[in-house]
Design brief:
It contains no helices and 19 strands. It is an all-beta fold and 228 residues long. The strands form six sheets. It has a four-stranded antiparallel β-sheet with strand order 3-4-5-6, with no helix packed on it. It has a four-stranded antiparallel β-sheet with strand order 7-8-9-10, with no helix packed on it. A hairpin with a 7-residue loop joins strand 9 and strand 10. The two termini are 31 Å apart. The model has no long low-confidence stretch (mean pLDDT 93).
Length: 228
């Protein structure tokens, strides 16, 4: 999360840094455009602040159209940290970003952001409060109007850490991320919910997995749905 972005062209035998003169070295996520793997999106700001460690904020979202040689800023500078960047499977102009917010501050630039014009403009479609952001996203590859988002209530101060709360939860959208509904059936929904990870099985997209932690980072369980 603090070493920048590296690229390999030989299957991982060697790596070279890219983007050092463009964005910050604190990185939250990297995503390739499924339609054009030379188009790379980087969400800056490490979103996974640990119990005793620090993370550093970023400079928003960046895009390269030439495999990492050159970069341009695509907004969301105020989000602080980005947990996930997801590109639509068949429409390169549509993206979703999970913004976790600044580590030591309350702010309103948290939640799920969506663009339909390649990052020229953004709309926040899932918002909770000034201490709850979004940490993970997953899109159904066969039906990309179906998405899942994980929210995470987190507050950090020099002498206090709260990494969970009632705002933490798993959400589903069936209209491309325009509206969201919280999922509670069979899932933890009390105040002792922390970071959540979510993933969709590519071979069977109705199968969805979620891993839940508690407010201090212990795993509460891994959950599976077979009906989306």
């Amino acid at each position: 999360g603090s070493g920048g972005v590296f690229k390999t062209t030989d299957g991982g035998a060697t790596f070279t840094p890219v983007g050092e003169d463009a964005f910050t070295m604190s990185i939250g996520d990297v995503a390739l455009d499924p339609q054009d793997p030379q188009t790379v999106w980087v969400g800056t700001g490490e979103a996974n602040g640990g119990g005793g460690s620090l993370t550093y904020g970023g400079s928003g979202l960046w895009r390269s159209g030439d495999g990492g040689q050159t970069w341009d800023a695509r907004g969301l500078e105020g989000t602080g940290t980005i947990g996930r960047v997801v590109v639509h499977p068949t429409d390169s102009d549509r993206l979703w970003v999970a913004a976790a917010g600044k580590l030591f501050e309350k702010d309103d630039a948290r939640g799920v952001f969506r663009t339909t014009d390649g990052g020229n403009s953004w709309t926040r479609t899932l918002a909770m409060d000034d201490s709850t952001g979004s940490i993970d996203l997953a899109v159904n590859p066969r039906s990309p109007d179906s998405l899942f988002a994980a929210t995470w209530t987190r507050q950090r101060r020099p002498n206090d850490r709260q990494y969970g709360g009632p705002g933490s939860g798993l959400w589903r959208s069936t209209d491309g991320g325009q509206t969201w509904a919280k999922l509670t059936a069979g899932l933890p929904s009390d105040a002792n919910v922390g970071r959540i990870g979510v993933s969709i099985a590519a071979s069977r997209p109705n199968v969805v997995y979620a891993v839940f932690t508690d407010a201090i980072g212990n795993t509460r369980g891994t959950y599976r749905s077979e009906n989306g």
